[in-house]
């Protein structure tokens, strides 16, 4: 059994993937813009991820832009049959490293073709629509036009499965009226639990939920309780936060990102941590113990 196998598997579309995957965002340069400081190290992380059992990689062609997908292609192509690469469309980068919406049908079509070219594939495993919302949080604006555009590309055979990112429950339901949705990728962690009801609803439907920013992202989660639990378990706070997510619901798939082989291996140990009900209560603020 490889390290990534220890947390079990869950269906992503029609394929079972290990619940601990890998997020490629940190392979790009500072602010997720430009090339990595150490290209060889970035390639090594990707290759090591597969060696230790990762078979679910999350990326986007607007990381860099184009950088992470080109690194994935260089490191891993031709791809293993069991590898699922999930990408996102709906944003683009300005020359000043700004993040900007790219939600029109023409922009989405171009983004899909950019992903196909830079990953060097004929069909994309999963494409998530990254709804814009307020950029950092979802809203309830209609995404019918965007999903309809991606559903047409799916009918053309360019996309196998569709997912959503940065969306509300209202938007999930709207999208499901247009096409099958196999995953939802939203901001969720110990300190940001607005999606509790959505996670349980998706679990009941057999749909994967993929939390990003497990430690708060650009504004790291600060928790004395988390640090205390981690210290008692002899683990890092990140590993405890990841272990909590794994225990939160069986449909949760993790995509922790790193540009370090050592941190990659450390992240995978989250699958070996077992949090007692008492520790879970403590982490979730239901106990003073």
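^ structure tokens above, recovered residues below v
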């Amino acid at each position: 059994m490889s390290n990534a196998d220890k947390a079990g598997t869950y269906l992503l579309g029609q394929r079972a993937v290990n619940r601990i995957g890998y997020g490629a965002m940190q392979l790009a340069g500072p602010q997720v813009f430009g090339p990595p400081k150490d290209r060889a190290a970035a390639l090594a992380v990707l290759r090591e991820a597969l060696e230790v059992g990762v078979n679910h990689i999350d990326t986007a062609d607007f990381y860099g832009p184009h950088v992470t997908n080109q690194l994935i292609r260089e490191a891993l192509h031709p791809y293993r049959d069991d590898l699922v690469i999930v990408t996102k469309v709906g944003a683009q980068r300005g020359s000043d490293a700004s993040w900007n919406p790219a939600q029109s049908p023409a922009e989405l079509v171009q983004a899909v073709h950019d992903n196909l070219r830079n990953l060097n594939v004929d069909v994309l495993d999963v494409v998530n629509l990254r709804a814009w919302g307020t950029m950092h949080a979802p809203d309830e604006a209609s995404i019918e036009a965007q999903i309809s555009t991606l559903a047409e590309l799916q009918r053309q055979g360019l996309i196998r499965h569709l997912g959503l990112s940065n969306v509300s429950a209202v938007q999930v339901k709207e999208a499901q009226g247009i096409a099958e949705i196999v995953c939802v990728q939203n901001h969720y962690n110990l300190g940001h639990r607005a999606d509790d009801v959505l996670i349980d609803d998706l679990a009941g439907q057999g749909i994967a939920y993929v939390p990003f920013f497990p430690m708060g992202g650009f504004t790291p989660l600060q928790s004395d309780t988390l640090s205390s639990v981690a210290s008692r378990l002899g683990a890092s706070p990140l590993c405890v936060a990841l272990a909590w997510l794994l225990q939160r619901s069986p449909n949760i798939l993790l995509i922790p990102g790193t540009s370090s082989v050592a941190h990659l291996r450390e992240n995978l140990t989250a699958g070996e941590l077992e949090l007692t009900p008492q520790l879970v209560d403590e982490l979730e603020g239901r106990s003073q113990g």
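The chain has a mean pLDDT of 94.
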